[in-house]
Amino acid sequence: MSEKSEITVFTNTIRGNDSIELEQVFSRTKGLVVYQNNYLYGHISALERKFTSIVKALGHENFNYFARLFIIKNPSKSENIDNYGFRFESFLAEQNELLEMGYLKYLARLDLFWFESFKNLGKSIGLPKGIFSLWDSLINEKEIDEIEIVEQFNEKIIMMKEEEEILLVLIDNEHTGEIYE
Description:
The chain has helices at about 5-15, 20-30, 35-50, 50-60, 60-75, 90-95, 105-115, 115-120, 130-140; strands at about 125-130, 150-160, 165-170, 180. By secondary structure, it is α+β, with helices and mostly antiparallel strands.
């Protein structure tokens, strides 16, 4: 087997991709399980940091399940792990098990907006009414029973910097001026 073929098999093994060639080199790649697990758990950890409210909405076990599926179907194409996971929002929306939780895609969008706060200073995002309150409650572990999501009405959320703090400010709502730090 050529060096290029071995590298391809190595990469596919690490990423968890099935390959007929794996049988041919299994004895030479047995030790790759450590690297495969490192790749998988490193990417799950990166998704957890980026999608904090999704972790809280689904719980760790369920989040890890969907994150693992996402990683297997969407291998990283960048050496910078912070560039990974931007399609997670649409992936969640496509999962049959999560259809009743349609608000997850909006939470994921807000998580990304917050994660990239320095890029988003002065920018705004429009999301259905109630998403900001749900997101804030999940992040701060507050009660969420009374929160209603109304997709017909959008709220505008602006990323601002006040002194040394980055803030999310909710506009276009009866609670105009809610702030998340």
